[in-house]
Automatic annotation (TrEMBL):
<dbReference type="GO" id="GO:0046040">
    <property type="term" value="P:IMP metabolic process"/>
</dbReference>
<comment type="subunit">
    <text>Homodimer.</text>
</comment>
<dbReference type="GO" id="GO:0004019">
    <property type="term" value="F:adenylosuccinate synthase activity"/>
</dbReference>
<dbReference type="GO" id="GO:0005737">
    <property type="term" value="C:cytoplasm"/>
</dbReference>
<dbReference type="InterPro" id="IPR027417">
    <property type="entry name" value="P-loop_NTPase"/>
</dbReference>
<keyword id="KW-0658">Purine biosynthesis</keyword>
<keyword id="KW-0547">Nucleotide-binding</keyword>
<dbReference type="Pfam" id="PF00709">
    <property type="entry name" value="Adenylsucc_synt"/>
</dbReference>
<protein>
    <recommendedName>
        <fullName>Adenylosuccinate synthase</fullName>
    </recommendedName>
</protein>
<dbReference type="GO" id="GO:0046872">
    <property type="term" value="F:metal ion binding"/>
</dbReference>
<keyword id="KW-0436">Ligase</keyword>
<dbReference type="InterPro" id="IPR001114">
    <property type="entry name" value="Adenylosuccinate_synthetase"/>
</dbReference>
<keyword id="KW-0479">Metal-binding</keyword>
<keyword id="KW-0342">GTP-binding</keyword>
<dbReference type="GO" id="GO:0044208">
    <property type="term" value="P:'de novo' AMP biosynthetic process"/>
</dbReference>
<dbReference type="GO" id="GO:0005525">
    <property type="term" value="F:GTP binding"/>
</dbReference>
<dbReference type="InterPro" id="IPR042109">
    <property type="entry name" value="Adenylosuccinate_synth_dom1"/>
</dbReference>
Length: 258
């Protein structure tokens, strides 16, 4: 392909082999039997944190295939990746933005293709880290969140970027879908069915005041607490922490994660 399609010189096998041997030498000191290290740490009573990448709806089995990734980003995938038994995991924290985003193609039932979507995108700096592509933004999808909760088994939830919604006078939460004239409360297994879904939403008042300086849950505006409480009911799972900014200290611990 390189030579016939792109017209470039062929790669030298010896040069590539030599280069990758050098990579191997640099990486060698960092290669260990990580599964054994983790098992021993747990046996000593230490805390081990596994962080998953991507999101539940990119799972090739339960996500919006073919708009998915190649491996499982679910909590069970953490066991496979780390080499730990599922019984070793006793806390699973689900992480949701206070609204929905998606990068690239694929169904997003709550997508906002209007000024509200643009406001959320600009306020949340929702652009791809490497490509700079604008992310698609929409209202929080409780139907998708329930699926994520079911297949991951969350013991708690973190809601991030609540402060992005500070500017909006009214908020919506998707609580169901309208599919071919029927109202459903589940996430369709068929991506073609999901593409035909229209969101059924509840509307809540916004708070229209800055939350970025708040560190105690009780200090949040009443409307913000009502929004969080409704998410907690719909997911349904206890919300442990809420972020109101990009800095580490801009975190509200509603209840203990552990």
């Amino acid at each position: 392909i390189l030579t016939k399609v792109y017209g470039v010189s062929p790669l030298s096998l010896d040069e590539v082999y030599s280069q990758y041997c050098q990579y191997g030498e640099r990486l060698a000191p960092h290669i260990r039997e990580t599964a054994t290290i983790l098992e021993e740490a747990l046996n000593r009573g230490e805390l081990v944190l596994l962080e998953g990448a991507q999101g539940a709806l990119l799972d090739p089995d339960f996500g919006t295939y073919p708009y998915t990734t190649s491996s499982s980003p679910l909590s069970g995938g953490g066991c496979l990746g780390a080499g730990l038994s599922p019984t070793r995991i006793n806390r699973i924290l689900g992480v949701f933005k206070a609204y929905c985003t998606r990068v690239g193609a694929g169904p997003l039932p709550t997508e906002l293709k209007d000024e509200t979507g643009n406001l959320i995108r600009e306020q949340g700096h929702e652009y791809g880290t490497t490509t700079g592509r604008p992310r698609r933004c929409g209202w929080f999808d409780a139907v998708a969140a329930r699926l994520s909760n079911r297949i991951n088994g969350f013991t708690g939830v973190a809601i991030t970027r609540l402060d992005v919604l500070d500017i909006l006078p009214r908020l919506k939460i998707c609580v169901g879908y309208k599919l071919d004239g029927e109202t459903i409360d589940y996430f369709p297994g068929s991506v073609t069915a999901l593409e035909r879904c229209q969101p059924v939403c509840e509307e809540l008042p916004g708070w229209q005041t800055s939350t970025s300086h708040i560190r105690q849950y009780e200090q949040l505006p009443l409307e913000a607490r009502q929004y969080v409480a409704r998410l907690e009911e719909l997911i349904p799972c206890p919300i442990n922490l809420i972020s109101v900014g990009a800095k580490r200290e801009q975190t509200i611990f509603k209840t203990s994660v552990l």
